[in-house]
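Risk register update: the risk of archive-format incompatibility is retired. Evidence:
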Amino acid sequence: MLDTLDATAVRTWCRLALTALGQAREEIDALNVYPVPDGDTGTNLYLTVEAAAEAAEEAAGDPASDGDGLGPITAAMARGALIGARGNSGVILAQWLRGLAEGLADGGDAPALRRALPRAAEAAYRAVADPVEGTLLTVAAEAARAAAAEDGSLADTARTACAAARTALQHTPEQLDVLAEAGVVDAGGRGLVAVLGALADTVLGHTPMGPMALRHETVRPLPAHHDSCEGHARLPGHPAFEVIYLLEAEEDAMPALRTRLAALGDSLVVGGGDGLWNVHVHVDDAGAAVEAGVEAGRPYRIRITHFAEAAARAGATGSGSEPSAPARAVLSVVSGHGLAELCEQAGSAVLHADPDRPPVSAELADAVRRCAAREVIVLLNDPELRAAAGAAADQLREEGLRIAVLPTRSPVQGLAALAVHDAGRRFDEDVVAMTSAAGATRHAELAVAEGESWTMAGVCQAGDVLGLIDGDVAVIGTDTAETAGTLLDRMLAAGGELVTLVLGADAPEHLAEDLVAHARRQRPEVDTVVYHGGQESELLLIGVE
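Archived output:
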């Protein structure tokens, strides 16, 4: 349990918040009925916090940074969120983080957090041209009010803020008629609950699956008649475009810009400071909104979304209709040159993943775009990438691409899926066949323990050889070949006809030969194939079909 926040704690908070939002992303998207029911609030919040987390990690790795100093890393986190903010909710959250960072600049103890949370709420309110209660703003304000009244420890303050936010979230339908009509709580407020829950987890020392980040009052599901594709652009009296851009401008230019944009449309949010701003507005005249930015300063990263066209694209990609002569590609995310070559030989494009830094959503989206295909099937080969891939897929569908993300948990499942890929089939049929092949492939891996840890198979020490089956430690040993043999026996005990062995970069020289011989002695009817994958994080990957 922490008594004060430091740079390491902020990085941990960012990671836990990203995990919590990744797990809740689809739920939050479904709750999204205000201000525009376009079903993207969860995705926008995820992308905003992803940018904040990336910035915090970069600041921590900067030799010029102030070691464990709190001010520089919270400032980097807030600036990253501002630059990466997406949508109305993302800009508001970025401004909330900016206020929090300013409040924590001189320290991270309990009194500092009690001062910072009200400052964060005030900053969020100031960013919105026409604040509405029953939204993220209300949840932020109630969390701040409760925290300011707390006189206990840092943990007490974090827990109190999170509990108050959850309570405020449940009352949002009483404050906003559109939520009451839909029978849901506010989507942005739900996202802030996840972020505050992650802060409490960080202070209390919980894991990403800890109780605060995931525990919240049951939210009511979105009724069937509220289709998330039915945006305000299809309803009379609402603007047709969402316009977002970053703006380099002096602060004295902002009042005139806010006045001009407020006259053009609604849902106006302007966050930032120190010469950099994130502008979000819903308008009928997108060109005029951009021109207003040009008059104020230098707008860039301009993003214009026509709600009706986006909804039509979403409906088309989900309708099951086949475009004429579709160009289809498969993208495999792998680590190791040998695995990359195997995937390329099977006809897949490859995104090389750094084992120490998994690709973020923007990198996944760019890799899909480079495939230059209208239909893309993505093989993740790592369960940790599911949230980032889901956010990337949502962005790409807005661009008119047809995307299927297969949650393969290991490269051996990806190889099995590639073996049955057939671009001549209908897209849905190809996805089903590849998913079935991946699901029928049990996977295991051999790795070396980095330190002492409790596992399902007992306590391991640094340097022990670990055999994992479907992600859980099943075998602990000291001899690589012996542990690998025991692991393979465990895998084959459930049956199988084909064993795939993928050797890592640090695998012992004769490991493959020993395992093939072992398999022939124990199960002569089973075929075994060996590949040199070159992956650095595992000594060996095993697939059994």
